[in-house]
Design brief:
Two copies of one chain form a homodimer. By secondary structure, chain A is mainly alpha-helical. Chain A has 21 helices and six strands. In chain A, helix 15 packs parallel to helix 21 and helix 20 runs antiparallel to helix 21.
């Protein structure tokens, strides 16, 4: 990559404190690319670079650095640099950075903001951590419906510099209530002498500041927008949310769901950036919960100890049988959790999902049951490992598989419904959690079937 | 929802074929909302509605319908309606719809396109199914560097109607090679008499038509763009990709990864839209593969049948022990697969991941081993279920857990690396697949440890 080639040159500029050449060199690059280069510097070098740089360029680059680097740099800067950096940052990026700091550090940062910026930052920090309010920027272009398009374009040229996006302008009334949003294309394609009110269709999609971040993803997807306005309960326009943030939210929500499905607490940072002990803690919690749950398998097996002692052959199939239940449960849970996250199914769909899983589970159970039966039958023609009653054992295993796979599908599909109904995130019913549940109940099914089938022969 | 309230009225308009009122009513709505309403109509009603509607409004609504509905409606239309609908559709939506049809239906559709649209559709269909080319639209505004901004704005007003977005304009040279992209904000904020070349920074990010769709997501995220240009190998501008499509790609890529991690083949449609037999097939394939793999557990257990017969108590802990390995393997696999998908780790990071998993796995193993040991010790103070040698059993279980959890973490983390190295999608190393592998090897670890610890006493 280009960054690697230029690294020695950049290092030289930092060491010699050649501010002018550094500015000029980095100015030719996109801020996101400079941020990648910064990540390759040592802690002393990137701090020196951030000090040498200044103005909006510094803030843009800083916004692209990862969170731990941002925190480290921020807290190493002197008050003057800290203030100028924070005052230049985009509102949404600044809000999430400030929210990640300790209360003491946060108040030191807030103290360095201008009165206006400070009021703004504090108001944005008041929204809940996972609300749309935290993604908001109050910098947008708002216009009045009696203005001509030419007037709007002149207004943008004079006052649009701070706006997060100029792709959309917002029409408000005397009370700053949102009436409509107009995409810039509508203005650019129309006669400049036309009035805004003639372009309006009063079909305006907006978000609420208190909405969950995740719900914004669905609105952006459904309506294919690049920016959406945020209003309060009275309809007053508070700010806007842009799609670049929403794409990040969509990816991180999917990551969190995946991690929960994978049976661990969602990480807050990337795998590589998460400290080892945090990583262990986030994994240990669920691993212990699942372990305690799985202890019930030892209890369940204990009830059937006598049967196992009489027919050790039964124990041989325990891992095969319970893992089949676990796997079919994982599949069902994964499908249902993701369908919930994407809004493809709702709570009221439980009955149709139950019917589908009943049918799928039965078919899948038949397939696995048939394979299991054939395997035992086949082995028994070549060896005596399963003894003279191999046919009964094959029947017991086959029937158990049908029951357990069916049960796994039902449990995997219905547990997420139950959690959602109770107001808990369905992703928490992570696949291993379902598997553990199915393991314990599966053992009971298996041994019960075996006792019925083998009574009078092996047992 | 509004749609439900208006449904009877809309049905009435369809039955009475009141085209004018229908047009007028639906015109007040956003196409995405009309599409939701259409989904509530019967098959006959929505076909009648699509026939009554016409022009661009019909195409916009149609684009928001789900794929099965689109296919059904399309193939029920007569040639004239089919042609006018397809000619009006956006290129990217049309390409993916055409690609989903059978060859016969596709060629019937292509025959109804105008010569120009047909050439375009055919050229877009030539890109591979999961390539950026399939997301592309060739409708964008391109300008020359010697033009003034005013000239560009006039040009947009005259020629911009078909452009997919006006948020970005593209500067090309005499050979239609891309030189730079300018966001509309840069044009709106500058003096209209300035020339384009004065705004250019020659810092232009572009995609290649042959790139994978997924890779586009990362570029959009890194550079926070709303549209990106697509060029061929010589740098000629072929088309643009807009972020609304990229958000869909990000969500569907995450869904596919999640489903693979959940141990099934990725579905092509939503859970509710997938026919039952397809659903069963996609699940059965992996369930059978995993079942065949798990059969090795029966074989492994067979080797230790003699030990189990001597000490039935050993069998009681089999489900507990192998599920702990499986759960820790799922966790590791989930973390690594997602980190790969987001580009957070690369193949060259295998060594640092291995070291982290070695440390995490050992710590997690210690925790579970200690709990397992304590559980057996505790139970033994109240009951005689584990016999006189309970301490040795507790030691065997505790030590096995350390080994198996460590092994689960290593296998879960390294199998995705191995698959990626072999050019296979790491998500295919779905968590249950790792679990199955760990189950089989875990049994061997458990019984080997037990034989060493219990030799001379129970065994």
């Amino acid at each position: 990559m280009l960054q690697d080639l230029l690294l020695p040159e950049i290092r030289e500029l930092i060491v010699t404190r050649d501010e002018a050449t550094l500015h000029e060199t980095l100015d030719r690059w996109l801020p996101a690319d400079v941020a990648i280069l910064m990540a390759k510097l040592t802690d002393e070098e990137d701090l020196a670079a951030i000090k040498l740089l200044g103005g909006p360029q510094r803030a843009r680059i800083f916004e692209y650095l990862d969170r731990p680097t941002q925190q480290r740099l921020l807290l190493s800067l002197n008050d003057a640099d800290l203030g100028s950096l924070l005052n230049e940052m985009a509102d949404d990026d600044r809000t999430s950075l400030l929210a990640s700091l300790s209360p003491d550090d946060r108040s030191r940062c807030l103290d360095r903001l201008t009165a206006e910026q400070r009021a703004l930052a504090e108001s944005l920090l008041q929204y809940p951590a996972d609300s749309v309010g935290r993604l908001m920027t109050p910098h947008f272009v708002c216009v009045r419906q009696h203005w001509t398009i030419q007037h709007v374009l002149d207004h943008i040229r004079l006052h649009g510099h701070d706006s997060e996006t100029l792709n959309v302008v917002y029409v408000v009334d005397d009370n700053h209530r949102l009436i409509d949003d107009l995409r810039i294309r509508q203005l650019l394609l129309a006669d400049p002498q036309r009035r805004i009110e003639h372009l309006m269709d009063s079909n305006c999609i907006s978000l609420r500041a208190g909405d969950e971040k995740r719900s914004a993803v669905e609105v952006f997807r459904r309506y294919d927008r690049t920016a959406l306005p945020v209003v309060d309960v009275t309809g007053r326009l508070l700010g806007i949310v842009t799609i670049d943030d929403v794409l990040d939210i969509a990816e991180s929500a999917a990551t969190k769901d995946m991690q929960k499905l994978g049976g661990l607490e969602a990480l807050d940072a990337s795998y590589a950036d998460t400290p080892l002990l945090t990583l262990v803690r986030k994994r240990a919690v669920w691993l212990i919960v699942l372990f305690l749950g799985e202890m019930l398998t030892a209890t369940a097996m204990g009830y059937f100890e006598e049967e196992i002692a009489k027919a050790v052959v039964l124990a041989l199939f325990v891992p095969l049988i319970i893992s089949s239940g676990g796997n079919s449960g994982s599949q069902a849970a994964t499908l249902i959790v993701r369908a919930f996250a994407l809004g493809e199914i709702q709570l009221r769909d439980w009955w149709s999902v139950l019917r589908r899983e009943l049918a799928s589970g039965f078919l899948l159970g038949l397939v696995l049951g048939a394979i299991g039966f054939s395997r035992i039958a086949l082995w028994s023609t070549f060896s005596t490992i399963y003894g003279p009653h191999w046919l009964l054992i094959a029947v017991a295993v086959g029937l158990s598989l049908i029951g357990i796979v069916l049960w796994g599908c039902l449990a995997g599909a219905m547990i997420p419904f139950g959690l959602k109904c109770a107001g808990i995130d369905p992703a928490t019913s992570s696949a291993p959690f379902v598997a553990t549940f199915v393991d314990v109940t599966g053992l009971v099914i298996y041994f019960s079937v075996a006792i019925v089938v083998l009574r009078g022969t092996l047992l």
